Amino acid sequence: MKNFIFQSPTRIIFGKDTELEIGKETKKFAGKVLLHYGGSSIKKYGLYEKVMKSLKDEDIEVFELGGVKPNPRLNLVYEGIKICRNNNIKFILAVGGGSAIDSAKAIACGVNYKGDIWDFYTTDKKAEKVLPVGVILTIPAAGSEASNGSVITKEEGLLKKAYTDETIRPVFAILNPELTFTLPAEQTLNGISDIFAHGLERYFTNTQNVDFSDRLIEGAFKSLIKNTYIVLEKPHDYAARAEIMWIGLVMHNGLFGAGREEDWASHMIEHELSAIYDIAHGAGLSIVFPAWMRYVYKHDINRFAQFAIRVFGAETYFNDMEKTALEGIKRLKNFYKEVGLPTSLGDVSIPDTLLKVMAEKSTSEGPLGHFVKLETKDVLNILKIAMN
Prior knowledge:
The protein has 388 residues and is an alpha/beta fold. Helix content is 48%, strand content 11%. It has helices spanning 22-27, 41-44, 47-57, 74-87, 98-110, 119-122, 185-203, 211-233, 238-250, 265-277, 281-296, 301-312, 321-339, 355-362, 376-385, and strands at residues 11-14, 32-37, 61-65, 92-96, 133-137, 149-154, 159-164, 172-175.
C-alpha cells in the first residue's frame, strides 16, 4: 500500500425529502446564488418549485442558468462566470447530475480568475479562489457530488478535458433517491456504467497489498450488479435506488483509491468518443472497458482472475488462470449486454473512420494510464477491439 492523504469534506445529506433542506444549507454560505441545471426535467417533476420555495423561504436571491447538456460545454461555463461577476454572486448551486455539477465547479473556479477558465483544464495551473458549490443530485453516475474533479467539453476542436483539485469538492450534497425514480432506463444504465467504471479504474492497479480496498471495491461491484437488476424491474424501488446512489458517491470520493495507484486510461479513451460523437459517457465506458481489459489482461492475469472469481463467481481454473481471467471479462461484457448497455462501437453506430484520430488525440500529451502505459498504437488497437 502506498502513502496517502484521504480527505472528503463534502457534507452528505441523504434520504427522503432532503431537497427541502436546500434553503437552510445554502443560507450558511450566501444570500445570493446561481442556480445551475440542465433541461426541463427538474421543472416537469416538481423539483424546481421545491428548490425555489426553500431558497425564497430563507430570503436567498436566485439567479438562474439552465441549459447544461451531457458532456457540459465550455461556452455555458463562460456565461455562468459572467452572470456571477455581474451580480456579485458568491455561491453556485447545481441541481442535476454530473454534467451540471462539473459545469458549476468550472464556473466556481473561473469567477475570480483573470485568465481563461480553460487554462485549468489544459495546463498545470490551479484555481486560487474558488466559490463554494452545493449540489442536489438527480442522476447517480459521475460521483461529482463529492469528488475533486470536473470534466468540460470545448466544442471548438472537439476537446474534452478534466481538471482535478481538492478545492472544487462541493461543500454539501443532497441525495434523495426518490428523485431518481423518473429517470429513463437508458439514463439509469449509463449512470451505473459510469459508477462501475470508477471502480474498475481503481481496481486494476500495480500496487501490492491492497486487499482491504480490493474487497471494498468488489463489494460495491456486487451490490451494484444486484441492484441494477432490481431497478430495471422496479424503477420505484427506494432501497435499490438508495444503494446505487450511495455506491456512486463512495466509488468516486477518493476512498476506494486511497493507497493504490489508479489507471484512468479507459476514461481518457472514452473522452475522445464522447467529444467527437457526443454519446453518453456511460455508454462509451461500457464499450471501451471490456476492450481495454482484453488488451491488457496478460499484464496481471492473477488480478483479472481475482476479479472474475470474487465479483462474478467464476469457476477457478487452477491450471489455467488465463481462462479464469478471460471468463471475468466475458461476464462483465455479458452483464452490460444483458441490462441493455452497448458493448461495441457498432452498437452506437460509430464507424472505424476516426479511430486513428481518436488514438492520436488521446495520447497527444503522452501515454495513457498506469496499469499499462498505452501509446497511440495501443489505443488504436483497443478501439479496433471495441468495434465488435
